TrEMBL record:
This is UBA domain-containing protein. The keyword Transmembrane helix applies. Gene3D superfamilies: DNA helicase RuvA subunit, C-terminal domain, Rhomboid-like. It comes from Alosa alosa. It is found in: Membrane.
Length: 351
């Protein structure tokens, strides 16, 4: 099933793991052991403009000087690791580098605009790698599907993205001028995500640097590959364990059939993906499954899947269309996944 961040830990996310470990260790070192050196890592815009200390645009935007900001930004980076697994470490690093560079320019422009319009003097901004963290909310809002989970008091809808927004709001309210950093990050994220003035080409990590980083980071920080039989919680009942194993078995079966179809394809088809040609084999996965899988599916509790010609819910089609998929692809994906919007979204995003 598709979730916001998956459950594979830091697998295939070495850059995210390094962003969690290195800045956190440096923050603890400066806060507890070397507080006399904190002034070197302050994000002082006044010193940049008047004393021409340009190096503060580098040192003041790497390490957080507040443990609470470090904790909240670490939680957000851990949730946003899905983008590194989806796009690759080099493209993820290019996004962070581009928004980090754009954020410095936007910070100065916002400070000058506040001084000119409202006579508000912005001398010190929160330090740390905060602008790229807020910039990651742009692809998070645009590409991660919003799946309702429950409702509070019968009116407030709680989705799979609510916790991430709550942590971002907590980080936003941690200091008085954090909203300047947040606005700068969102603006830089929109500019880079929309590729304004070809920024994705201009502000990207060189290929040679990506190869060097892969040789250095991956052996040290690459997470272990998750096992197929993942352990379940101690409080889980037998039914929950069986449900988790069956979900994993269904997903592996669907992905293996999709890989087999791709290997048998002779020529790629132009235009839209031919879901009608791809998914009939997926609909028949219960017939073509191995005997062990068929027996397990027969024992699995729950209602029987709808027939192939069952209508799809227009609400689910509209939700997939809001994510940017065409109506035809959304309908075919929902029919193939038996109207399971999580599974349909997974196939549309990954394949």
């Amino acid at each position: 099933m598709f979730t916001t961040t998956g459950s594979r830990g830091m697998y295939k996310a070495p850059l995210s793991k390094s962003l969690l470990l290195v800045p956190t260790a440096l923050t603890v070192l400066l806060t507890l052991l070397l507080p006399q050196y904190q002034s070197l890592f302050e994000y002082n815009l006044q010193a940049v403009k008047e004393e021409y200390q340009i190096w503060r645009l580098l040192s003041g935007r790497i390490i957080c000087l507040d443990l609470k900001d470090t904790f909240c930004s670490g939680l957000l980076i851990y949730n946003f690791r899905i983008f590194e697994r989806r796009f690759g470490s080099r493209k993820f690093a290019s996004f962070l580098l581009g928004t980090w560079a754009l954020g410095a320019a936007v910070d100065i422009l916002l400070a000058e605009a506040l001084h000119f319009l409202f006579e508000m003097q912005v001398e010190m901004l929160p330090a740390g790698l905060l602008s790229p963290v807020f910039a990651l909310f742009v692809p998070f809002f645009c590409s991660i599907p919003r799946v309702p989970v429950t409702q509070l008091l019968g009116q407030i809808s709680v989705t799979n993205k609510s916790l991430v927004y709550i942590v971002g709001l907590q980080l936003l309210t941690s200091s008085s001028f954090m909203w300047v950093i947040a606005l700068s990050g969102l603006v830089s994220g929109v500019l880079y995500h929309c590729n304004v003035l070809w920024m994705q080409r201009l502000l990207q990590v060189p290929a040679w640097l990506g190869r060097v980083g892969a040789l250095l980071l991956e052996p040290l920080l690459e997470g272990s590959e998750p096992t197929q039989e993942a352990p379940v919680g101690m409080g889980a009942t037998l039914d929950v364990q069986r449900q988790q194993r069956m979900d994993l078995l269904d997903q592996q079966l669907l992905l293996s059939q999709l890989a087999q179809v791709r290997r048998n394809a002779q020529q790629p088809q132009a235009g839209l993906l031919n879901w009608g040609w791809l998914f009939p084999t997926l609909r028949q996965r219960g017939r073509n499954a191995t005997p062990a899988v068929a027996v397990a599916q027969a024992r699995r509790p729950g209602p029987s899947p709808p027939p192939e010609n069952s209508p799809v819910a227009e609400e689910q089609v509209a939700r997939l269309m809001e994510m940017g998929f065409s109506r035809v692809d959304a309908q075919e994906a929902l029919r193939a996944s038996n109207n399971d919007i999580n599974m349909a979204t997974n196939f549309l995003l990954q394949h």
